[in-house]
Amino acid sequence: MSSLKKLVIILVILVVAFPVGAFGYVYFKLNSMHDPNANSLLGETNFKAENGITNILLIGTDGRPGEKDSRSDAMMILTVDNKNKSLKLTSLARDSYVDIPGHGNQKLTHAYVYGQANLLIETIENNFALDIQNYAAVDFYSFMDIVDALGGVTVKVEQDEIHELNKFIPETYAWDENSNKGSIQYIKKSGTQTLNGYQALSYSRIRKNDSAFERDSRQRKVIQALIDGVKALPVTKYPKLVDTILPYVKTNMKPTEILGLGGTVLSLDDLSIKQEEFPIDDDIHSTGGIYGDAGWVLRFDPDTLDILHDFIFSNIRFKDNPLLKTNPTQNNLK
């Protein structure tokens, strides 16, 4: 089951899209998001880290009404890079084959089921040799509410996406608790158009007509559209948007940390976000398929962690990294 990478939207709105002046309104409300049970690992430096670079794990969970357990359907690392003056967003594939402490080798998405954010953080740090400084998590329903609070998102819908998109609309329409959602509306044509909350969620769930990687690409397009929408939002609309966002978010960050991070982001000048996805999707440095009892998983060459680190810490895009020219053998895959 798929949903949009909801958490990225939430955190980017809080630390990227709002001007510093808007934080005066939300300062005291931010404390309602604080999770006092945050993993102690976040205060330690056990893996690769550098001064001036903050890595925030963004978690979107796939819980629905009546479900007690939920998986981390969306996992991204938002890198606020004050050293290289850039913002970066790295998607971690939910089907990545990893060693979950105490549970053996499984899909990355299962870690959240077993131990919530604490175990997921530990799993990511152990398997990707990367230090995480902060995290934030949000549940399934926030996405539709945020899109509607912004008046929709503008994306380009391709002709071959319409059937699959409309297939999900009855379900997402039923989930949408917006009293002003009106009668159900399907997508009737291709091209650039504005989608409401349940339509945008349906668009973000498309998968079967191409691949999980293409789905992630669509999700990132919606994220960019949301960021653009927040940037264009009049200041008078901030209170409503903040009230929409805050009930859904939990984070280890205290209000002062969020404010400080927001100030750092705004000082970068260039707020465009460089995006990558790991494992690397090229059928050379990773391979997907049924593996043992784990089901369909994505195994990756551990040597490619250097490529991931080069992007996060040295601002080197995957396609520009000479290490990609090295073809691993199948035995190198995890």
Written account of the structure:
The protein is α+β, with helices and mostly antiparallel strands and 334 residues long. The protein has 2 domains: 236 residues, LCP protein (Aminopeptidase), CATH 3.40.630.190; 70 residues, Aminopeptidase (3-Layer(aba) Sandwich), CATH 3.40.630. The chain is 36% helix and 20% strand. It contains 10 helices and 12 strands. The strands form 4 sheets. A 6-stranded mixed β-sheet has the order 9-6-1-2-3-10, with helices on both faces. β4 and β5 form a beta hairpin. α6 packs antiparallel against α7. It is globular and about 50 Å long. InterPro entries: LytR/CpsA/Psr_CW_biosynth, LytR_CpsA_psr. Belongs to the LytR/CpsA/Psr (LCP) family.
* Topology pattern, helix = H, strand = E: HHEEEEEHEHEHEHHHEHEEEH
Instruction: Give the N-to-C terminal Cα separation.
Output: 25 Å
Q: What is the radius of gyration computed over CA atoms, rounded to a whole number of angstroms?
A: 19 Å
Please estimate the helix content: 25-40%
CATH superfamily of the largest domain: LCP protein
CATH class wording of the largest domain: Alpha Beta
| Poorly predicted regions | 1-7
User: How many separate domains make up the residues?
Assistant: 2
Q: Strand arrangement, largest sheet?
A: 9-6-1-2-3-10
* Quaternary structure: single chain
Largest sheet: 6 strands, mixed
The helix/strand class is alpha+beta
- Summed over residues and divided by their number, the pLDDT gives a mean of 82
- Percent in strands: 15-25%
What is the overall shape? globular
What is the third-level CATH name, the topology of the largest domain?
Aminopeptidase
